[in-house]
């Protein structure tokens, strides 16, 4: 997002923004990404299409921002002083109902991501990269504190292991990740692999 | 697959079967699952639709069997005497070009799996379950040989970690899993988590 767009967006209230994001997610669930139009978003939220384009730039960006607002807390904002604490808080902030809804939404988007490079880029820039960077910071602090060896070969694979769990569990066991699974998984796999 | 279908299928030669599976995969790549018809498969392979239905049962089953035949060796057939040896052979049998093609194919199928419970079931029964069972056997033997503690909490998550890596790497790094990644990933994450 450019600074210009950012300053434009700051003119609407957080409540109005949340309302708009909620409407986008509702429409996504109802009709899917391909059939979602800026017209429908404008009608549903009683705003003009010009406002939507001015404030969100494009449909892929609007969708990526709406998905981002379902996240309880960005990982980059978690800093408890220990890796166990950081991951523990990440698990604690996770909401079972929200994760189930997100899993269904993201599964519905898989095809659209494949078809639309713009959606792919928006999800990567606004959703995936910030969380990966947040996780990277957590791990870096753990290395600096001496909790994890800087040579630990598992360090670079932690994002793959955690992102993978979110996708593999629905595939293997036909159920979305919940807080209990996430906590057990991190205790059983991530900490031992990191030597924590 | 019922025994009856199995005995019927045994009447065609392995070469003819491989040719047919190859044609199904080509068509899948060309037109996608939804647009793939038994008519097109019959035309491409110069067989009758009746033969296809008699020998493969249905389009979802035919597609699942065709995908299965791209696997070099079923995991259940790998037994080297050690867990490191078993996973090592699994990595060694992996073919980079084939994994890249499979990743593209499976990504293309994601939408179809979501829409078709029959395809979902066929992929699960013919592709996913046999491999998960094969991995379960590998781990069970490792426990029996004393290589892994029977109480190791990572045991139940090994499939999630490995299946997850195959999906997370393309998402995070925009590239399919190759043999080098798979080997490093197993060394860095799976063995330490299992205490091997």
Automatic annotation (TrEMBL), chains A, B:
Regions recorded as binding DNA: 37-56
Domain HTH tetR-type: 14-74
Annotated signal peptide: none
The UniProt record lists the keyword Transcription: yes
Organism superkingdom: Bacteria
Pfam family, one: TetR_C_11
Keywords attached to this entry: DNA-binding, Transcription, Transcription regulation
Alphabetized GO MF terms: DNA-binding transcription factor activity; transcription cis-regulatory region binding
Gene3D superfamilies cross-referenced by the UniProt entry: Homeodomain-like (1.10.10.60), Tetracycline Repressor, domain 2 (1.10.357.10)
InterPro entries: Homeodomain-like_sf, HTH-type_TetR-like_transc_reg, HTH_TetR, Tet_transcr_reg_TetR-rel_C_sf, TetR_C
Record protein name field: TetR family transcriptional regulator
Organism of derivation: Streptomyces globosus
Source organism phylogeny: Bacteria, Bacillati, Actinomycetota, Actinomycetes, Kitasatosporales
